Amino acid sequence: MMRNPFKIHEFQKVVSGSQLGPDDAILDLGCGKGFQTQVLARSCRTAVGLDVSETQIEQARFFLKHSYVEKRVKFIAGRLEDVGLPSESFDRVFSFCVLEHIPNLDQVLCELARVLKPGGELHASVDALTSIEDQDLIARHKSDHHVVQYFTPSSLRRQLEAAGLEVFAISTIMTSEFARRQFEDRIRRADFSYGLVNRLRFNRRLRTEEESGREAKAGSGNGGIMIVARARRAKP
Q: Which of 4, 55, 83, 187 has the least CB density, counted as fewest CB within 10 Å?
């Protein structure tokens, strides 16, 4: 995440609208090496990072050592539907471009609804790539990154609602020509990392495009690279 300005922008967009609070217990689904889990843990009471890769979780635990949020964070290796997390145990679930990689997504979304407290919220980003017209590039990205499905706002909404989650916000991000061209170039290179100076410049450009009004409005369905969705488990 640290070298990829797309991921930095995505993280900022997802978290900035989550209203994460100091008393919240959160789950980071598909946490990888856990860097974003540690960042989230700075703003909440407890954080659980979950990933199917034992290797990634081992690295996450290594990087957590001696962190000042170490006592707030727990990393678990396994599939959500297998690890037996307690029902109604999380105020927030975060997922950063993970849902598109899950073959049994309907089952996993139902599990997310189960572990959320009533009124608890899911804040997730997913790949859309609807602004990219080159089907060969999309096929390459799908193969390189093991994508099961890409989403549109309507298809993502349907799957979240089918799991019993109430979608209260959904929007497409990175809709500018600049974002499209850069993302296509990085697919061709098979490398999304940038040097520090270019990373800062790129991230600033993404924000500028958004602030200038060229990004898609919530629910507009305009083509973009990613979608951000926010959903909650209904209270009884």
A: 55
